[in-house]
Task: inverse folding
């Protein structure tokens, strides 16, 4: 879904009068034209964290200050702060600063900042505009696109939130230079996910190019982000509120979210939990006869090549993981629905997995 069918042009998420562009290029965050048309009013609050702020808020604020009144809010860093308490800090700043409905939030950071700041934008005075400036690979390929915003609850990931689309996504590949290796790998989990659920050619390409991707060659990074965002934009445009195919973007997440909650938010990164979760989903699919051993091994090889885990910690308690999985948002009429591969490049949402899920959990956990 590119503008003018030009592969170099911005991608567009087609959602009628809430459509927006995803710009992917080096140097975007420091250019005032990047923000043009995406910000309607004069006042802008840049929401960032204590790690990303010192690195990039200067460039972002300087670019915005050419045509806006800009202020900054710096939040603590970490998944454990993706909470209602942190959200309240954003409301406090907006209210104390008398921000009106024409204000815009700029979310400068990874998926945690994007999700919290996006939810603040969704809910402050019943909704204000926001711009996503994603600074992790994960946020550039996934979380900044599609409008899922929210915070965690002790009993489940992303349990409180809203759909609220940004007015623009600015994926500046230069900022990935400072991203730690573990965080880069975590982003690759969501990239591999697109290959597994709907793009076999992309999976083949990732398999063939993983070393160069890990070396962060700029032209490969742009291709990784562009192909990932193109997949996500297509799914979101077809099913914004997840009444159908958008649930496929949850491959590995029912298992992974349970791991994140059980381990304590922030112990395993989201992408790490999703990687192990996708291997567990592959195991369930194999037990249903949908994948064969060779396909499961191939999936694990690609995940290992991306420096990601292929299994959860064994010492977790199976019953507790199963209980957490049972609170997944894909539960319908009391039955958990799972996203499972039918092939590499194809997946379905199903509740017809019988006792294969229990068999998978028995394989992965001792207790
Ligand atoms: N809304 C969605 O559709 C969606 C999709 C996928 C994931 N998520 C959510 O996103 C979150 C994970 O996001 P994440 O992986 O970006 O984690 P994150 O936001 O915690 O960022 C990872 C770490 O990298 C640091 N960082 C960010 N950019 C940096 C940079 N350029 N240089 C150096 N350090 C940098 C951050 O400060 C943080 O310590 C989870 O909460 C997950 O649930 C949401
Ligand atoms: O955009 C989506 O839809 C996704 O499911 C993307 C996921 O990678 C992301 O982790 C999302 O936050 C999960 O959503 P949830 O509804 O399962 O909490
Ligand atoms: Zn995810």
Result:
């Amino acid at each position: 879904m590119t503008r003018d069918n030009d592969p170099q042009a911005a991608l567009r998420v087609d959602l009628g009068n809430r459509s927006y562009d995803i710009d992917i290029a080096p140097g975007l965050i420091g250019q005032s034209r990047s923000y043009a048309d995406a910000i309607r009013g004069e006042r802008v609050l840049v929401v960032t964290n204590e790690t990303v702020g010192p690195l990039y808020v200067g460039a972002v604020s300087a670019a915005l200050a050419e045509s806006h009144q800009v202020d900054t809010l710096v939040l603590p860093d970490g998944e454990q702060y993706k909470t209602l308490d942190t959200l309240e800090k954003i409301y406090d700043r907006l209210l104390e600063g008398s921000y009106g409905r024409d204000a815009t939030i700029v979310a400068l950071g990874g998926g945690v900042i994007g999700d919290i700041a996006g939810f603040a934008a969704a809910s402050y005075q019943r909704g204000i505009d926001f711009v996503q400036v994603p600074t992790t690979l994960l946020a550039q390929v996934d979380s900044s696109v599609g409008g899922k915003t929210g915070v965690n609850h002790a009993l489940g990931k992303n349990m409180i939130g809203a759909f609220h689309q940004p007015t623009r996504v600015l994926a500046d590949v230069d900022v990935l230079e400072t991203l730690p290796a573990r965080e880069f790998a975590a982003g690759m989990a969501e990239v591999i996910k697109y290959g597994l659920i709907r793009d076999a050619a992309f999976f083949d390409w990732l398999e063939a190019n993983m070393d160069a991707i890990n070396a962060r060659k700029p032209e490969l990074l742009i291709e990784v982000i562009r192909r990932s965002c193109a997949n996500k934009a297509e799914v979101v445009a077809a099913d914004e509120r997840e009444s159908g195919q958008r649930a496929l973007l949850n491959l590995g997440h029912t298992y992974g979210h349970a791991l994140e909650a059980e381990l304590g938010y922030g112990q395993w990164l989201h992408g790490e939990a999703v990687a192990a979760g996708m291997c567990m989903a592959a195991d369930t699919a194999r037990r249903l006869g949908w994948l064969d051993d060779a396909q499961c091994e191939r999936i694990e090889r690609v995940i290992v090549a991306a420096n990601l885990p292929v299994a959860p910690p064994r010492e977790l308690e199976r019953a507790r993981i199963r209980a957490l999985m049972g609170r997944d948002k894909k539960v319908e009429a009391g039955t958990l629905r799972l996203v499972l591969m039918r092939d590499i490049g194809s997946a379905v949402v199903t509740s017809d997995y019988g006792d294969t899920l229990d068999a998978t959990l028995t394989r992965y956990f001792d207790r």
Remarks:
- Residues 142, 190, 253, 270, 274 surround zinc ion (ligand 3) (CB under 6 Å).
